[in-house]
Amino acid sequence: MNKETIKYEVDPYNKLAISKTCKTSNLPKFRQILEGRFKIDKKNNLTYIVRKPLTKDTPHQVKLKGKWSLDKNNDLVLTLDKTKRDSLGDKVTLKGALKKATKDSLDFSLTTKTKNKLSSYVIKLNGKWQADKYNQLTFNVKKEHSKHDILTLKGGWKLNNNQITYTYKKSQLIRKQKKTYVLTFKGHWDIKGKKRITYAMDKSSTSGFDLRAYYSQFKSNYIKYKIGIITNIKPRPKDNVITLFGQWKLTKALGLSFEVKNKQGKPYSVNFKAEAKLTKKDTINFKLKDTNNKDIQAQIELNHKILKGAGDGFIRLLKTNKEKTLLIGVGFGW
What we know:
The chain is mainly beta and about 325 residues long.
C-alpha cells in the first residue's frame, strides 16, 4: 500500500494549500487551495479555518504546530513539527506586516483575497519583549512548559521623542513598490547600571529591553547613554544616543530621583538609592545605587542650588552627621 505524504504551503494571498503525493509511485501530486483564514489561540498554536470545504473530504480546519520565527522579510514563519506526521512541507510562511506591539503581544497583519477583493485581518501572538545580547529587539513567543520561540527584529532600531521605533521596508502584495512600516514601543526608561539602561513597557510586566551601553554620562540636567547594535545586516545601523533631559530631586520619601518627561509631557521619575558625601566645595557627591541597593558604578556631583530647598537642609545634615557618608533612598529616612 502506497504511503500518502502531505505538504502544506501558503499561496501569495495567505491561503493554505495542501498537496498530497505517494512516496512509492509516480502518481501526480494533488493540490488544493482552501478558502479561509488563519487564527492563533492563547497558546500560540496556528489553525486554518476553512470557509468553504471543496469536498466532503476537505477538513473544516487544519491545526499546525511548530516553531515560530521571522524571515529576512519580516514575514512570520512556522517551522512545522513533524512528530507523528508524514509531511514534505517544513515551513509555513505568512506574508504580512508587523502591526502593533504591546507589553505582552505582537499583532501581525495578513492580506487575503476573496472574489477579487483584497482584505486584511490581524493575528496576535502572546509573549514578551526583550533585547538579546546584541541589543537587537526580540519577541519571545510563549510556548508550553515555560519555553519560548524567539522572533528577532533584524537590524537597527531608532529613538523618536525617547520612544523606541523599529522601521523596515518590504514590497507590497500587488505593487512592487516598497512600503515603509513602523513599529512603535511605548514605555519609559529605567537605569540599571553605568552600562545598562532599560526601556520598560509596563511596571507590572517583565516585558522590556535591557540594553547594554558602551558609554554613559550623568550630569546635572541630563543622563546620556550610547548603545551599539551588533548585526550582520549591511549597512550597519548607527549607534543610538539616549539622552534623558530632566531634573534631579531630593526628597525624604524617595531619596534621590531624576524626573523625566515622556512624549506626552507627563513626568515620571527614575529613582535611586545613593551614598551621599559632602565635598570640599560644599557640593554633594552621590554614589548611585539601584532600588535594591546594588551599586550601579555611577556617580553624580550636584550643587545644593540644583536640589533647591532640600539641598540646603541636606548639606546641614551631612555637616552634622558623624559618618563620612549617608545612605539615602527608598525605605530610608533622613
